[in-house]
Amino acid sequence: MENKNVIDFPVYAEHNALWGCGAHGHITAFIDRTWAEENGALDVHTVSEATCLAEKAARHGALITWEIDNHGALDVQRAMALVEQHEALRRINVIHGSCSLEEENELGDAAKYYMKAVKSHLPKTSLIGKENLRDVGAELLHFTAEIDRAVVMEMKRARFSLSSIESAVLQCSPRREAVASYYQNVKKGKIKTCTIQEKQGRSAFLSR
């Protein structure tokens, strides 16, 4: 993929939910260069580190596409559809409590409140927060617009600002519409994702 605004990394193929079914060969991920450089691309020295960077790029709307076994880069729109599917399932796992420390640290106060509050509005048939999820995809059916509206009302009562509530829903809700809107807003610059430099600056400020 010839593009000076894109940087490529070899990544592991085990994450089929992200790369697509049957992705067992050599995979090259193409990431937005500016975002990658702001998020530690120069410190990536192993395939494992590159895979983690690509997964983070997917969460932040910076993963452009990927190539499997040198067969040519996947159509960007198809890649985005797979990223959105993967992100919806990832969000369910985060709500369930299965996430990395990095994923947890990416959440602000409003997002963390959403993740906790939404559990109390899910139907009793949902297994989220109760036991191991055998079928994460089946849990998607429990996340409806009505559920999100209930959480929004709860967050309003908790005195979160309307802008923080909207961002939390777009960042955390597994609903297809919310996930798609999240990436659209990131692309338009309406939602700013946190870079490594910003996190370091915030930590330095808090330590003063």
Please tell me about this protein's structure.
A 3-stranded antiparallel β-sheet has the order 1-2-3. Mean pLDDT is 86; it is low at 194-208. The protein is built from 11 helices and 3 strands. The chain has helices at residues 16-19, 33-38, 47-59, 76-96, 101-105, 109-117, 136-139, 145-157, 162-172, 176-188, 196-206; strands at residues 6-11, 27-32, 63-68. The chain has 208 residues and is mainly alpha-helical. It is globular, with a radius of gyration of 18 Å. α6 packs across α8 and α9 (162-172) crosses α10 (176-188). The chain is 53% helix and 9% strand. The N and C termini lie far apart (45 Å).
Structural class, judged by helices and strands? mainly alpha
Q: Number of helical segments?
A: 11
Integer average pLDDT: 86
Order of helices and strands: EHEHHEHHHHHHHH
Strand neighbour order, sheet with most strands: 1-2-3
C-alpha end-to-end distance: 45 Å
Strand content: 5-15%
Cα shape: globular
> Major sheet: size, sense and barrel closure?
3 strands, antiparallel
Q: Over the alpha carbons, how many angstroms does the gyration radius reach?
A: 18 Å
The level of helicity is 40-55%
Please report the total strand number as a whole number.
3
Which stretches of 5+ consecutive residues score pLDDT under 50? Answer: 194-208
